[in-house]
Model the fold of this input.
Amino acid sequence: MRTRAAVAIEAGKPLEIMEVNLEGPKAGEVLVEIKATGLCHTDAFTLSGADPEGMFPAILGHEGAGVVLEVGAGVTSLKPGDHVIPLYTPECRTCDYCLNPKTNLCQSIRETQGAGVMPDGTSRFSMLDGTPILHYMGCSTFANHTVLPEIALAKVRKDAPFDKICYIGCGVTTGIGAVINTAKVEIGSKAIVFGLGGIGLNVLQGLRMAGADQIIGVDLNDSKVEMAKRFGMTDFVNPANVTGDLVAHLVELTGGGADYTFDATGNVGVMRTALEASHKGWGESIIIGVAPAGAEISTRPFQLVTGRSWRGTAFGGARGRTDVPKIVDWYMDGKIEIDPMITHVLSLDDINKGFDLMHAGESIRAVVEF
Ligand code: NAD
Ligand code: AHE
Ligand code: ZN
Done:
């Protein structure tokens, strides 16, 4: 079939909207009509050329929601008409990783996913002249139709709006999951969230759900304050307004350091600040942000010797097929909020405007509706 997609032709160039060929689902695969997709900073990161795994031409996008149109041979858990959210972290439920309760990082198709192809080693997308186009994070939601492995789709309830629940495909789950699954924040905790964008705001609402007492937000952009307060931030710090050492300032503000800190910026300098602003003896710092190729984190080992832990999280530690339908329920039941964070709704033709808004710090989430 043919479908419309925003294609990343090469690094650093705007996406090009075009008709592309899409082959139908092979064994174990599913054809999905994407109804809406969010724009995550990770898409911009890969498009910029900073992603060591970034390859072109590719169809980016990993925060979608849609409807199953067709299933390939052997697919048993999904049927046409089912509503689904694509999962860049699949859940096969049989690999060593899925069988280990300590991780959500299903590895059954990680290698081919990272290479931009389906598990059989080929791509379903091509240009009209036959040039293959790579998949991205196993999802490629910047296309009106896409093909995914069955294990990379969460089946969700049919009354949930696509233009909101697409965000559960990455940002919402990552932020809330970082608090609940990864950090396992306790009631009464003190926490600091660095970066109050599409991920950081969801860390805030996760902290509020977990019953944290003090929730400090740190961002260079003052315009994030209003939204951050709405999602639970109790104190705001703009590093540009701090005279002297930022770590010392945060340690003083928390009365000795935070129980939990979260980096949602992808800046390795910020990651160090986050680690060092966590409490001596027991503070835990969770890295969510994705840093460019070649970037490395550093600190004095003494920071760890004296009881701080540095950890990371992908997709908020969530097991997608199990957890994503529950998070959709939380949204539908009013337990979590999504709507105010979707600040812009665009057509596919305007997708590059969404990236401009992100880079200008003017959007939280821009969503493309098909
Ligand atoms: P975003 O652009 O919406 O938000 C980033 C925020 O960080 C902005 O508000 C910006 O002003 C702020 N910021 C930038 N530099 C800063 C600094 N030095 N100090 C304080 N604040 C600063 O991006 P997003 O979509 O929220 O993504 C955030 C990060 O999380 C990105 O690196 C993204 O790739 C990553 N991410 C990781 C996962 C995961 O599973 N680990 C999932 C999704 C996104
Ligand atoms: N490809 C990059 C790393 C990108 C990365 O860390 N991705 C996160 C999800 S970000 C979603 O917005 C992730 O899930 N990582 C685990 C994994 O297996 O990719 C690089 O540096 O090579
Ligand atoms: Zn993302």
Observations:
- The chain has a mean pLDDT of 98.
- Residues 171-183 form the longest helix (13 residues).
